[in-house]
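P.,

For your records, the input lines for the assembly:
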Amino acid sequence: LDSGALSKIEAQLNELHPAEIANLLESLPLQNRRIVWELTNPELAGDILVEVNDEVRLGLIEHTDEDDLVAAVGSLDTDDLADIFEDLPKVVLHQVVRAMSNQDRRRLQSVMSYDEDSAGGLMNPDMVTIRPNVDLGVVLRYLRQRTELPANTDKLFVVDRDDRYLGILNISDLLTTNSKESVSNTMITDQKALLPTLSANEVALFFEDYNLVSAPVVDEDNRLLGRITVDDVVDVIRDEADRSLLSLAGLDEDDDMFAPVTRSAKRRAVWLGINLFTAFLAAWVIGIFAATIEQVVALAVLMPIVASMGGIAGSQTLMLVIRGIALNQIGTTNARWLLWKELAVGSLNGILWACVVAAITGFWFQSQSLGLLIGVALVINLIVAALAGATIPLTLKKMNIDPAIAGGVILTTVTDVIGFFSFLGLATVFLI
Amino acid sequence: LDSGALSKIEAQLNELHPAEIANLLESLPLQNRRIVWELTNPELAGDILVEVNDEVRLGLIEHTDEDDLVAAVGSLDTDDLADIFEDLPKVVLHQVVRAMSNQDRRRLQSVMSYDEDSAGGLMNPDMVTIRPNVDLGVVLRYLRQRTELPANTDKLFVVDRDDRYLGILNISDLLTTNSKESVSNTMITDQKALLPTLSANEVALFFEDYNLVSAPVVDEDNRLLGRITVDDVVDVIRDEADRSLLSLAGLDEDDDMFAPVTRSAKRRAVWLGINLFTAFLAAWVIGIFAATIEQVVALAVLMPIVASMGGIAGSQTLMLVIRGIALNQIGTTNARWLLWKELAVGSLNGILWACVVAAITGFWFQSQSLGLLIGVALVINLIVAALAGATIPLTLKKMNIDPAIAGGVILTTVTDVIGFFSFLGLATVFLI
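Structure tokens returned:
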């Protein structure tokens, strides 16, 4: 890249939105990422740091002067600052916090006292509140005095003297109602407020159900703490989706696609190690029947079929239940129904494919008894797979472990072990 | 359930939001679902039908009188009606369309002429448009004359006499700017409009990047067709997330969790059949080396380890690339970088775990050469897994096949076949 090309890139770059630059940075290998970062308009730097994922952010912060960081981060909204707070060097934090107003500092503390993945962590204290006893004309004049409204202001929050939440006034009602009408007559009082301890996932489901743009957050005394806006909820849904997909492979949604090779390798190694353990467990089960295999080598040829079909059938049930849990659609009553249904489906498919596999096997190895054996083993494994696929995620959920992370590994272990054990065990009893 | 309990349920039910009732219906087994559906307030029926997934909707429609359906569906917004249009019986459609105004009929046709998963399919023609040459006071009076605004109206769309899109007027600017100012001076002209052919996924990324509540859709002549609102975008993100998770197991996000057993079994059977084919392929590879296994039965014990480690390592790369493709973060230039990086990670982890497996194997079977063999096979399979994990989704994407559906099956086939072939092949050459 010569300097002519660089200044061309710089011009193009600074026409982009911070989120687009963040996207670009995430998709660049490390060296190019640093070059582009240095070309970026410093005014956008703060917003870009908020948008990139955790690991990319740490890398960028490492390559930025402290003074530039203070300037970049100082202009951020309180909730955004709270999101990246812990990634910033202490010296920078010290300067940023010192430069804040007392009110902003209190707000930052309030947001940071809650878990990042809760309503409290998502909320933004920046909002417009009004009193119930004024008329809409007063509200309109009050808004005109402000030069701008916080982003995504679709409603104003009505509070009493003690900041207790009373209801909302929709901007659309403000615009279409006679300005002589009072706030208390126009406001909506049945908009439920969220508690700061609600999980981010439940906040997202709430926004989805009610098609909201913003929603109030109140403490246990019904005092208004802040509001959550749909742009943050969209990020929650995307992050949860990425997380549940990537965690199936033991990955983290905040990992950098272009992390240094050694760092990536180290991270992946842990997951491979866990799986190696379960693979050795399966090997040990096979080892028990080594003498049987020595006599009938066809067993070695066929045994992966029983194990893999169990794994596939089990993962179908597993995915269905994981999704149901994420959508809050599975409780104790219907879990039982679901289990019965999955067992029935597993049995039906077990019998169907057992016939197919038995026929092919019988023909391939010219042995009806081998065909019968593998068929029975397949039925057993598919029923166990349905049972495991339904109960593992529900059990993990009860133990507060993310079923998407551990579910797949445990399921495969079960279907491998049962698959090998049933097939080789039956063969040892009936074939030898 | 006695009639007392039923009337209690009915009272509780009709305090819920349509989306919550939809959720409840989806999580109920078939019989209970019908009972609850009959108790539901008919006024909410239309919105509930829009919210439930395709298969549940078809079931509910089947159990509803035609007259009730006409009443339920007649009051829906155009974009919502378009979404469920094809699921409705022809008689009902005929009556609904006949009752529509000419304008609504034209709008419905326009929305339905686009793919459901495109900007055109997502858009809603219901919006407020204004002219550039009036002042804000006129706009305020115009809005007051309407008794209500369409949901999620955070901006008004400025168009010329021919309905050509000129820019947007944010409601917040309308509220904070002097009412003598003209629309043309206050409007924002750099808000990009979307083409109706843009895919739903790209619409979602656009909303995420720009934190939007609504965005205009224009045709190729820049004529305003409608707008997309964030509540529909949230549903797109959720659906895509569900789809990519469930399609890994060959499931469809529109399937009913409580579909009749035979229907579920039939659907799952297809996926099991595909996987059975690949399992037999792997078995056939093992079969080639049956004579070798007969001589060294330890090979049968150990071979699943090589195959399964390859599958795990490959799926890590696969998931990373599938996510990158979904986020539009992988192009031709960085795909090459990514491939090299994944190959390096695969090699490193291959060597690391080869040493571990070789040591354990050597100790278990008291054979250094067997340990060496499995180590080499493991390195080969992990490198092939990285290569396959990176290239399979990119190739599928180029062929316009969803990498999440087919990627996993193809990858497992590759890692199984290469795993068995390399381990047993090496053993045949060097051990016998």
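Two observations worth noting. Chain A touches chain B through 114 residues (CB under 8 Å). Residues 3-113 of chain A form a domain with the MgtE N-terminal fold fold (CATH 1.25.60.10).

Regards
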